[in-house]
Design brief:
Blueprint (H helix, E strand, L loop, with lengths): L1 H4 L13 H18 L5 H24 L3 H15 L7 E5 L12 H23 L13 H38 L5 H21 L3 H18 L8 E5 L7 E4 H24 L14 H11 L2 H17 L9 E6 L2 H13 L3 E4 L9 E5 L16 E3 L1 H6 L1 H29 L9 E4 L9 E3 L12 E2 L3 H4 L2 H13 L4 E5 L4 H18 L16 E8 L21 E8 L26
Amino acid sequence: MKLLTSVFPRNGRVLPAGGWFTLVVCASVVGLEVAGRHATSDIHDAVAASALVAIVCAVAVRHRREPLPWLNRLAGFGRRIGGSFAWLRYDHGIDLRGTPPLPRRTPPVVFLLALALVAWGAAAVGAWVAFPTGWRAVAFYSSYTLYLAFLLALWSVLLVVTIVGIFVPVAMFDRWLKRWLGDTDRRAAELAAIVSYAMIVSAVAWVVPPAAVLGLCLAVSLGAWAAYLPRGTDGAALLWRAAADKPVCAVPLRRALAVIVGLTALVAFDVLLTACGGRLFAPPRADDAMPWTALLGTVAAWMMPGLFAVVLVKLYSAHHGDPARRTPPTLHVTGADPHEVHQAVLLARRWGWAVRRAPAPREPGQVPVEVVPAARSEATEFDPRWPLKVSVPDLEAGAVKERLDRRDEIKVRRQLFRGLQKLFKRASVFKGPAGGGFWLAPHWWFVEGVGREDADSANEDAPPLVGPAYSRVLPARARQHAHAVLRATQIDMIFVEDGVTFRNLERALRVLTELYDVHGGKRRAEELHFRGIPKVKVMIHEYEPGNPFRSDLYPEPKFDDLSRVRVLHIFRDRGGHEELIDPPFDFSSTPAPVGALG
């Protein structure tokens, strides 16, 4: 007996630490490999996949309590493999300047990814041609465990697509309900919408093969790549570089969106083709070896039209609400003589104005005029009352058009400042624990609203966007006017420090509008234009690679090092920016003349 026990280690363990657990894991994997050779459908694969998930969870729990050497080596090998793909990582930023122009190039990884997705689609087609009843037969000629891992990843993607496909359209429907019903309780309507939409899509997926949906994905992908081809320039672009010593290149934002949409549609096409390629044109076969995968794929496929519809609505809204577009002003015309009113309408439309005639009510932002006989005209009065009384000869002469243009600009500018005041009141509530500020950029279509500068900090009370969106507070023409003023004065973004009042912000913005008016939009803003504004310090800095904002007295807003943006900073005045001057001359010891004695 002593001879038998002498071969065991003295610590009482037959295997090294974790050895018995590793042996159990290996035995479980071997058991899965053996059981997989007897499985006949992916229903059995689902049971085996559950066992594989349980094994992975057990390994994770054991490794957390007592690190497993082989798992550490495996993780190190994975990190080395991941490090070998470091060349795929790019530094990125945003370019709102556009001048001087940078080379326009798309990262090569985009085309490599597109080729990989095309190869994936071709492999899926080949697998379904070779195995019409299901490509799970490849598990017999390879590792069943790796097959289960791929199957779990595919099922996870299909479930995510299904969940997102339900909640994204329902979220848009809820947004519409909020506009119609206000802040009333909408939970019953939301639940009914979710259940109804899921049931309708499931019924369609059960009856109709998904070939049309895959064709739609392919059409969207090809359409996105067609939109990518034109070489137009945009006001904004994405910057990228492969390494710190490589040149910086730019991708227009329009092209970047086309690439994202095209690759996403191509990924959807490949995933759906992989899952349900055997039942694209017909209902499931009796000898189908992958009924569960095909069901998930078909349901996920019929979620895609709703997602594409939401993306289409978003793109249309972004294009329609782009502040870079120019919407004509609207003239509201009233008058007692219908013939003269009709002539006035024709003349205004020749100017390029939109016209709204009485008795239609006048809406905010519309310029009102009243058509009267020439004797009652007030077109040349210094301070007339509005609606302005004009005659048809006044409109034909064209001199009154300049006055109406100025009136329209004043009304649009008032709408802009009123909307910014509402946004400022909401934004000023959210303040970071260590100071900070927020960003204003109502003239960019891709900026949804006022953003906090410290949104990525641990402060949960500072969300990325505060207050309502620009589109809800600022009329379209007010944002267009902001685009015209800020682009003409070459201000890309505005940073407002916490503690700056809206009155001081308005004063700074008034300087920009006056500069725009006086110089006709041909002079950019400089710091000297803002001297004299009390209680604030206005600084302008051009962010670009190698030129970050540095200040010992004022906070440094966070910004990407690769971005090119000209930012107007509005800080609270700390009194440290005055110029040093020589002390006054001391006259205490200087002889003074003495008056003559009487």
